[in-house]
Write the structure tokens for this entry.
Amino acid sequence: MSISPQNANEKGLPQTGVSLLRDVSLPAAVIHEAALLHNLAWMQRFVDAHHARLAPHGKTTMAPALFQRQLEAGAWGVTLATAVQCRAAFNHGIKRLLLANQLIGAANMTIVAELIEAGAEFYCVVDSVANAQALGRFFEERGLVLKVLIELGVPGGRCGCRTQEQVFELARAVNGASALRLAGLEGYEGVVHGNDPARRIRDYARQLVTTAQALYQDRLIEADDPIITASGSAWYDLIAEAFDAAGLREHFTPVLRPGCYVVHDHGLYQDAQQDVLVRRPDLEEGLRPALEIFAQVQSLPEPGLAIIAMGKRDIGADRMPEPLRRYREGGRLSETLDVTGWEVTRMMDQHAFLRLPEAASDVQIGDIIAFGTSHPCLTFDKWRRVCLADENLNVKEVMETCF
Amino acid sequence: MSISPQNANEKGLPQTGVSLLRDVSLPAAVIHEAALLHNLAWMQRFVDAHHARLAPHGKTTMAPALFQRQLEAGAWGVTLATAVQCRAAFNHGIKRLLLANQLIGAANMTIVAELIEAGAEFYCVVDSVANAQALGRFFEERGLVLKVLIELGVPGGRCGCRTQEQVFELARAVNGASALRLAGLEGYEGVVHGNDPARRIRDYARQLVTTAQALYQDRLIEADDPIITASGSAWYDLIAEAFDAAGLREHFTPVLRPGCYVVHDHGLYQDAQQDVLVRRPDLEEGLRPALEIFAQVQSLPEPGLAIIAMGKRDIGADRMPEPLRRYREGGRLSETLDVTGWEVTRMMDQHAFLRLPEAASDVQIGDIIAFGTSHPCLTFDKWRRVCLADENLNVKEVMETCF
């Protein structure tokens, strides 16, 4: 005999309408609606102001309900990291898919072929003649045309051609494959490192622009509507500025791909956002952190130590989660309790160690703590369902993820 | 229009019968059947030889198909880390559940009440009078009896009473709550640290035994068939030896709770297993690593560098994954290629950086690499489905997980 709800075999399964302070099995992943709506509008406004298109990186959340909101806010398409993620997005109604990665392996190529046959507008990235040839053979046999973007990387970086010579050699190979259509240039500035990163990223963005222009002038771009695309959620302002040049936009549509912006965070991307706002004092209030994990005090075994029922399986641990607010279980929203000086010192799979200051004498087992995350990608993938919460901390919507 | 398979919205969805070297979208999580069967039998034999019962920690895999095999091999029940995990196990036919954690929060207590009402034999852990009182009130209102185990921890450790005085105070509080039934003592030696850990763990195990005996002698144990339980997958031999004492077994059933043993690993637990075999030269061959992640070379952007389409979202990264074997995509099982000197140097969310020695001149984009993991808990939770593979690397069974 199973118990209700019948399919309740995973965590994060609240019903709508219930209170996070009373009715929901914790830990739970919570998105605050007001901050989410702010971020959706903010980034679309930013991208529009720079005459670009937005293809938010869907790998961050893999939540189709969020993809849908991003499209409704004005996004041009959705970026994804794997063929399987593309299939999940397409099956939830996303027609324009940008795989910001190389497409490797016959099984993954088959997935993409089926997407194209079903009507997807699909782009992927190439950085080697060998991969271009493999793709050319596979899609020719299927009688399909595959739009590809050449990836320009940086020495010491991740994927991508390292020189303009390699880009041109690859462009000629793509042009020589009847099943491939060269549709533009792709880069990712997030792997540019070194002193004075802003200068290096501006240099890299300029290199992307000149390389795209050179490909166009040499008539190596085959698509009618080619794109130039880069940008994560840390340096999108520098990419947007470099791509917002009339000479470039005449031939290429600039496409920006931030992902984490949609829920932002309390760590890595909060820091990056401060830097954006310093570089761009003209921007209004920046992004707001929208994602939190709610968890409860499980044990108070020693003075100054609380064990929280939340671990590496519930929240990203690139940095230690940050205690933001505390509530008494079943208490009122307005009665938030102090967490000043509280600090997560260690994470295990299912537990966090929280060091308490001496003043925390009012802490009780069962107290609910809202934790800030760093970063969102490695928090979302811990959850099959996240709660959208209204301003009263009631669950307004349960969003499924597809990891 | 969706594409087939209709519910193909997540990674890890191979059909059975297909080859991991040809037909499966990679990355994929792979359990080798022969090693799995070896481990299932090995640990049950070990536990039987020490006159204990096995309640394997299910949080490691959260794969009901593995729970079922563990029960078929002789396990007494399944241990879990949260109320939601207990519900998932019960809904898959596991009737005896040991929640090796405190049960906190009305929503989680409600889940457990429903399990007990549906026929589960359920145990959980308490370490404070406050929690015992909350449980007592909740289950009395529901008209149910809850079996609890007192947790004895260690100073500087995680949860658990720190002194025998606290244990006795708590035992009296449990005895005073009509809805609670004191059913034994629980500990976890995995949080014992310091110099000469084996000595410290033996001391801790002895403390568990003497505390349980003292509770019995003071007539504070209320259940007819009380248990004493401890042990993860690193020090289970020392716990088993301490619990294998006739005087103890007369009153308490010893229950061991290793979880990672079932698939073992190539890191943390491999090291721990070496130590077990040094301490216990009488044991035959130890556990075998059964879990691997199969992933492909995505890019070869610079001499000496391969980018692998596998990241922190696919494999535990407590230690860097270990390249074990390499295959050509579509190649033969017998033709494994060299990975000597190959080393993962960095992990991102969806990528791994692999440093190649100069000799690796035969590497090709698309090559399939089998990676060893550390540790299994943080690898399983990256997958909704794992492949059980036969000795020919064909998928024999697809196992769902419930995270």
Observations:
- Chain A touches chain B through 80 residues (CB under 8 Å).
- The CA atoms of residues 79 and 106 of chain A lie 21 Å apart.
